[in-house]
Amino acid sequence: MASETSNIVFDRAQLRRQRNRAAGGAADHDFLLAYVSDDLVDRLSIVTRSFPAALNLGAHHGLLSRRIRERDNVGVVIDADASLNLLMQCTGPRVLADEEALPFASESLDLVVSGLAFQFVNDLPGTLIQIRKALRPDGLLLATLLGGATLRELRHAWLVAESEVSGGVSPRVAPFADVREVGALLQRAGFALPVVDSETLTVTYDSPLALMRELKKMGAANALSGRHRHPVTRHLLARACEVYIDTFATSDGRIPATFELITMTAWAPHESQQKPLRPGSAQHRLADALGTTEHSTGEKPDQVGNSKRRD
C-alpha cells in the first residue's frame, strides 16, 4: 500500500498478467479468499438494513459475490476486477475495472465489499475516497485486506539469504498495511463510524517451495515495482528455503506461513447516524457509575491467532 506522495509500490500491469495466468486454477487455491468470504458474510448477516445495489471490488473469480447473493437483504451484486480471465468466471453482472479507477456514478451503490484486493492498490486513500463518493448516504463498505504481519517468515528468509548470497536485498514481499494506518485512512476518506480489526491466520505447508508455488497459483507472486527482473539463482532459492526451515519449522517438520487479515467496516455519512461525543465532554465517569475503581490496562491486543493446515 502507498500514500499519495510515495512512489509506485506495485506494478499493476504485472499483477494483472499474473492473475490472468493463474485464473484457470484460481478456484483450487482460494482457501484464503473462502475464509475471508465466510467472515464478511457473517458480518453482513448482522446488519438489518437492505442493500439494493452492491459492488464486489477486486472480485477475483466471484466467490464472495456468490456468497453474498444468498443474503435476503442484498439485491444486485456487480463484480468488478482488472483481470479479464478472472472476471469471466464471475456469474453475475460484471465490469472490467481497476480498483484505482472506479467507473461508478456518485451515490449509485448501497454496499461495497472487497476480499483481499486492497493490499495491492498503490493509492488506497484515493480508492477509499472513490468508494465513499460512489456510496449512497448510509451505504456500507465492508472489506478485508492483508496486513503487515503477512508472510513475515518468507520475508525474513529472503532477507537473510540475499544478504548472505548477494550482499544486498531486493523487495520480494509486499509492505502490507497495519490496523492503525487503515483506520486513519478511512477517516481521511470521509467515512463515518469506521471500525478496523485484525486476525492472524497461520497456515502450515510441507516446505517453503510448496508455499511459494501456492502463492504463484493464487496470482500473488512478486509484483513489486522495485523487484529484480533477473531470475532467482538456485543457490539463492536453496538458501532461502534453508533459512525458512531452520528458523520457523515446527516439531513435525512443517513450515508455518502467517496471514494477517485486516477487516474494515465503515459507512458513508448520513444525518441519521449516531454522532460521537466531543472528547472530554462526558459529564460522568463510567467507573463511578459502576461503583468500581478505574485501572489502566495498557494497549489492547488487536490480533487473534488461528491455525490452519495446507497440504
Automatic annotation (TrEMBL):
GO terms for molecular function: S-adenosylmethionine-dependent methyltransferase activity. It comes from the Bacteria. The keyword Transferase applies. Residues 55-142 form the Methyltransferase type domain. Keywords: Methyltransferase, Transferase. Residues 270-311 are annotated as: Disordered. InterPro entries: Malonyl-ACP_OMT, Methyltransf_11, SAM-dependent_MTases_sf. The keyword Transferase applies. One of its GO terms (biological process) is methylation. This is SAM-dependent methyltransferase. The lineage of its organism: Bacteria, Pseudomonadati, Pseudomonadota, Alphaproteobacteria, Hyphomicrobiales.
